[in-house]
């Protein structure tokens, strides 16, 4: 059985690789098969200052990649549903890749945008699991944005 907490904690650990930013969250993401094999990792600003974690993790799998049955995206923060720096949101990218499950720790707070990623994914039939017990770990990675 796949351990969601363990894989989500790995995504949180990946978030520590993010170059600091005062205008964006530090987020880590994994793409994982149904049997728990990690296919890719991504983090905010991984290859470009505008990269989001889920976007980077999915892009690492190649253009037009489609998820195998039962694949999950683990993200430390709720996938974005509003974006000004790129044409597609992480929610749209997850749906385009046909990922059937998303696990995250922290709903995006109202600092930059009003995010509805979890709701939009659910509305499209994606299973969305929130593990709020790990949210404090994600807030710690983003403490620089929360203390103003």
From TrEMBL:
PROSITE patterns: CYT_DCMP_DEAMINASES_2. SUPFAM superfamilies: Cytidine deaminase-like. It comes from the Bacteria. Residues 2-128 form the CMP/dCMP-type deaminase domain. Gene3D superfamilies: Cytidine Deaminase, domain 2. Pfam families: dCMP_cyt_deam_1. InterPro entries: CMP_dCMP_dom (IPR002125), Cytidine_deaminase-like (IPR016193). Transmembrane segments: none annotated. This is dCMP deaminase. It comes from Pseudonocardia yunnanensis.
């Amino acid at each position: 059985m796949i351990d969601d907490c363990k894989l989500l904690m790995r995504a949180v650990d990946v978030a520590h690789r993010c170059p600091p930013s005062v205008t964006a969250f530090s987020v880590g993401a994994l793409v994982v098969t149904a049997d728990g094999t990690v296919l890719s990792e991504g983090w905010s600003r991984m290859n470009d200052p505008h990269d989001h974690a889920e976007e980077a993790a999915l892009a690492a799998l190649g253009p037009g990649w489609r998820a195998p049955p039962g694949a999950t995206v683990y993200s430390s923060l709720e996938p974005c549903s509003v974006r000004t720096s790129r044409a597609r949101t992480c929610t749209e990218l997850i749906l385009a890749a046909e990922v059937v499950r998303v696990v995250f720790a922290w709903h995006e707070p109202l600092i930059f945008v009003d995010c509805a990623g979890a709701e939009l994914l659910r509305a499209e039939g994606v299973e969305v699991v929130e593990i709020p017990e790990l949210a404090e770990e994600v807030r710690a990675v983003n403490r620089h944005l929360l203390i103003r």
